[in-house]
Design a protein that fits this description.
This is Transferase. Keywords: Transferase. It comes from Mortierella alpina. GO terms for molecular function: acyltransferase activity, transferring groups other than amino-acyl groups. By secondary structure, the chain is an alpha+beta fold. The chain folds into 2 domains: 2-189, 2-Layer Sandwich (Chloramphenicol Acetyltransferase), CATH 3.30.559; 209-394 and 416-461, Chloramphenicol acetyltransferase-like domain (Chloramphenicol Acetyltransferase), CATH 3.30.559. Helix content is 26%, strand content 21%. It contains 12 helices and 18 strands. The strands form 4 sheets. It has a 7-stranded mixed beta sheet. Strands 1-6-7-8-3-15 form a 6-stranded mixed beta sheet, with helices on one face. A 3-stranded antiparallel beta sheet has the order 2-5-4. β4 (75-78) and β5 form a beta hairpin. The longest helix has 19 residues, at 259-277. It is globular, with a radius of gyration of 22 Å.
């Protein structure tokens, strides 16, 4: 039952320098359609605080956070020249829709109805942020938030959520962590690219179309089944040990692999085998059946790769996930052997090291900013067989997300039920070291995925209420 529905507007309490009327979106903001990033946080009952006091604190602190982070209060739109931007003038500061709901049932898990909005693609002129607070009959409080992906990536979204929580706790704001420049100009943090490098072909996994794309590729719009898996800290150690190169010098690069590389290898293999067993057709956006390779793409925050270390810790607000890709042997992905999985993990590590070097990122930024590629906007596209998103480095249940009555006991990527197939989100519980994986697959491949021998060797299918 909805108790309250209102709009939270920015305060004028702190008086930061006024933001520009608008900031142009960078092509790195536009490689994603106007989708959402969801985050649901679950809190124990707030002892010695009434429900109304909790809601008042959340709204008051949110209003202050919106003042200090104008893009989140602004509106994604096109300017008079047809350029996509975030408008932050008074006319376009529409604030944040804020709902308060009461459930007559106890908390049993996450669900889609805890999300403030469930659109796959946001309609034009949608608010950048939306919030829904639900109190269950047992006292558990769910705070569901969703942000427009063209406004922020996960890193920037969490920085805003942490600022909101810090203000709610009544702690001193560190203004050094708030940008003094809201422009989307990531190239200022990286080496200047020599003119000769600008003539190189598009960096993987991107291509440039002769005209703007009319919509996402068919591969991203196929229906899917969501499965969830749990990996204990012990099982991840065994996985890494089992597929690490026995003699590193057997690989030309002699590479070390991380636990994340090993996990990505396992997940990509399980998806590929399940699709093969289920005879899943290869629609637009995927590699052809004749190709000996699968195209793996992963989002990776590039802020920490800036050579002078001056881009992280809140200094750049926007999207800075310079996607990297690995072109991996399909036969290795189809194999159940640890040796094949090891080769996949090494290919992933090699691609990551090569494509996330400061020089490679600088070239990628130059590619995105070249008018030959971005005019008109919407011509730069990417495709993949499998999309990986690793959130494990973020503490989604940590003390920085405490609103004043304790940190969340659970945090999820939302109870959303619509994701493209071949999509994966990995999160880690920092207290236990357990990794949770949301893995999607086409309906025809569902049984094959759930029965995959290698996946079930290391993971447990999570059938508990979400």
């Amino acid at each position: 039952m909805t108790l309250e529905s209102c709009i939270v507007l920015p305060t004028s309490k702190h008086g930061p320098p006024p933001p520009p009327a608008a900031v142009l979106l960078h092509e790195l903001d536009l490689i994603s359609p106007p989708m959402q990033i969801h985050n649901h946080r679950f809190y124990r009952p707030a002892a010695h605080r009434s429900a109304s006091a909790v809601i008042d604190t959340l709204k008051t602190a949110l209003a202050e956070a919106l003042e200090l982070c104008p893009p989140v209060a602004g509106t994604v739109r096109t300017n008079d020249q047809g350029q996509p931007c975030i408008a932050m003038d008074a006319e376009n500061i529409q604030g944040t829709p804020f709902q308060v709901c009461i459930s007559d049932t106890p908390y049993e898990g996450d669900s889609e109805d805890l999300s403030p909005r469930t659109d796959i693609l946001l309609p034009p002129l949608s608010s950048s942020l939306a919030v829904k607070v639900t109190q269950f009959s047992c006292g558990t409080i769910a705070v569901g938030s969703s942000i427009h992906h063209q406004v922020a990536d996960l890193c920037a979204f969490l920085e805003f959520l942490e600022l909101w929580a810090l203000i709610a706790r009544g702690e001193t704001i560190d203004f050094a962590t708030i940008p003094d420049d809201w422009s989307r100009n990531p190239g200022r943090f990286f080496p200047k690219v020599e003119p000769a490098a600008k003539t190189l072909p598009p960096p993987p996994p991107f291509t440039v179309l002769p005209a703007p794309a009319s919509g996402p590729p068919a591969s991203l719009m196929q229906p899917s089944v969501i499965t969830r898996w749990k990996f204990s800290q012990s099982s991840l150690r065994h996985l890494k040990a089992d597929i690490s190169p026995i003699v590193p010098t057997e690989h030309p690069s002699g590479l070390w692999i991380s636990s994340g590389d090993a996990l990505a290898s396992l997940l990509c293999g399980a998806i590929t085998r399940a699709r093969n067993d289920g005879n899943v057709p290869r629609v637009e956006g995927r590699t052809s059946a004749d190709s000996p390779y699968e195209n793996l793409v992963m989002a990776a925050d590039g802020r920490g790769r800036a050579p002078e270390g001056n881009m992280a810790n809140g200094r750049y607000y926007g999207n800075f996930n310079p996607l990297w890709n690995a072109t991996v042997s399909r036969s290795d992905l189809l194999s159940l052997s640890c040796e094949a999985a090891s080769r996949v993990a090494v290919a992933i590590r090699s691609a990551l090291n090569l494509q996330l070097s400061p020089e490679a990122i600088a070239r990628k930024i130059s590619f995105f900013e070249d008018p030959l590629n971005n005019q008109p906007s919407g011509r730069i596209v990417w495709t993949a067989d499998i999309i990986l998103t690793n959130w494990c480095r973020f503490d989604l249940q940590g003390p920085k997300l405490d609103f004043g009555w304790g940190k969340p006991f659970r945090s999820t990527s939302g109870g959303v039920t619509a994701y493209p197939p071949g999509y994966c989100i990995m999160t880690e519980d920092k207290d236990s070291g357990e990794v949770s994986v949301m893995l999607t697959i086409e309906h025809a491949a569902e049984n094959g995925l759930k029965a995959d021998l290698l996946l079930n060797k290391y993971a447990v299918l999570d059938l508990s209420p979400q």
